[in-house]
Each structure stands twice: as structure tokens, then as C-alpha cells.
Amino acid sequence: MQKLQIGSQIAQVGGQDELCHAVADELEALIKSRAAEGKMAVLGLATGGTPLPLYAELIRRHREQGLSFANVMSFNLDEYEGLGRDHERSYWAEMWANLFNQVDIDPANVAVPPSIFDHAEDAAAKYERAIQEAGGIDWQLLGIGGEGHIGFNEKGSAVTSRTRRIALAEQTIRDAAPGFGGEKQVPTHAMTMGVGTILEAGRIVLMARGSSKRDIVKQAMSGEVGPEVPASFLQNHRNVGWFLDSDAARS
Ligand code: PGA
């Protein structure tokens, strides 16, 4: 893996396997050090295509090397509004299919923002409270959207934003359409952790792959910090790792 400076930030650049191994190594070290102290490792996890090879690597380590998730607690970043947990495109279902069902995590330690609720503000506040009660997030995984969203914090999201209901951007709906069989089937709203919620994590790892992410990654790492590109707020975090493949990193 190579280090590449982009603006004030340093990216780790490598092939998909190298990136996933490096991120899995970080996670494994955290989980094991917390287990040695008799403590939980509190993770913030992400959906989308980007983390799938990482999750496959974690499952491999669980099966072949005995990496245990018994002391892992997980809070997902976001969830579509209105999809039940049994809907295959719900992030709840995706997380179980792609990771949780295949490791030894306690189902009681899995949290995904609510999809169906009567009062959005109450539901959001409850999710925030659960994160606080867990002692905050130790390690947060992020992808990046084509317009710079992290979680579903779309363009315009404030640095102080907390978990809340949000309208999905047109670009986000277009990107999700193939999985839903058309734009009209994509939920118009979601529940997402806020930028402020994300920035409170002790360590943040953003992964990006492919040339379609190149321009937005560059803006996030070296452009003006502000709500136009919510991922740019990561420039001000004290412990952020950018893990990019060479297509996403090339300037
Ligand atoms: P992707 O999504 O991993 O499917 O590219 C990232 C995101 O929209 O945050």
C-alpha cells in the first residue's frame, strides 16, 4: 500500500484486497484489545457496495481464524424509511445477509436506525441515546456518495447535525434505482446518523473505490470544508483514515 497526500489529508492507496486486509487488521486489533479488557467494541457500520469485500474478509477471519464478534456492538449509519426489516433492500436485511448472519454477534447488540416510526424526532433521539448509552462509537466505517454524502447526510447537512429524518437527494435515488427496479420504487426519505454524530467517533475509516468516486474524494479531502460536500467535514477529525483504490485516488 502507498501513502498519498491529497490536500492536508493522507490516503492509503492500494488494491481491493490490500485495502480490505488493512481495514480488517484495524478492526481485529480493536475487537481483540477490547475483549482483553472485558469491554465491548462499539462499531459504526455502513451498507452499500463498498464495504462488501471488507465484510467478506471479516467473515473469513471469523470462520478460519476464530475472530469473535461476541464483544461487538454495532450501530448502522442509516436506513431507508418505510421498508420493513424483511424487505431485502432494507439496510437491516443487507447487514444481516452480508455480515451479521455469518458471525457470532449477539443480535441484541445490533442496531440499525428505525425505518418505520410514528414520530421521527422521537425515533431519532432514541437512536442517539442508544449510542450514548453504549459509550459512543469507537470506530466508524463510511463510504462516500457521488455528491459527497456520508451516511445519508446529503448536500446541505450541517456539521452539527444529529440523527434525523432526511429527504434523499435525486442523485442518491438515481444511484439506488437499479436495486429497487426503478427510481419510483426507491424510498424518498431515510433516517441517518448526523454529521455531528459521525464526527464523535474515536476513529473514522472512509473507503472508496472506482473512478466514479475520484472527483468527490478529491473534493472531500482537499476542497473547502462545508455542507456542500458533507464528507469534507472529515478533514477536521483527529483520527480519520482514507482507504482508496488507485482509481478513486488518481488525480
Ligand atoms: P457505495 O455507496 O458503497 O454503494 O458506493 C456509498 C454511499 O452512497 O455512501
Structural overview:
The chain is an alpha/beta fold. It has a single domain, classed as Rossmann fold (3-Layer(aba) Sandwich). It is 34% helix and 19% strand. It has 8 helices and 11 strands. Strand 3, helix 2 and strand 4 form a beta-alpha-beta unit. Helix 1 crosses helix 2. The longest helix is centred in the N-terminal third of the chain and has 21 residues. Bound molecules: 2-phosphoglycolic acid. 2-phosphoglycolic acid binds next to loops.
The CATH architecture can be named as 3-Layer(aba) Sandwich
Strand segment tally: 11
Ions, cofactors and other bound molecules:
2-phosphoglycolic acid
CATH class: Alpha Beta
| Helix percentage range | 25-40%
**Roughly what fraction of the amino acids lie in strands?**
15-25%
Largest sheet: 8 strands, mixed
Query: Which outline best applies?
Result: globular
Radius of gyration: 17 Å
Spatial strand sequence of the major β-sheet: 1-2-11-10-7-3-4-6
SS element count, helices: 8
CATH level 3 topology = Rossmann fold
Quickly count the domains: 1
End-to-end separation in angstroms reads: 17 Å
* Structure class: alpha/beta
- What's the helix-strand series? EEHEHEEHEHEEHEHEHEH
- List segments where confidence is low: pLDDT < 50 over at least 5 consecutive residues: none
Give the averaged pLDDT, no decimals.
Answer: 97
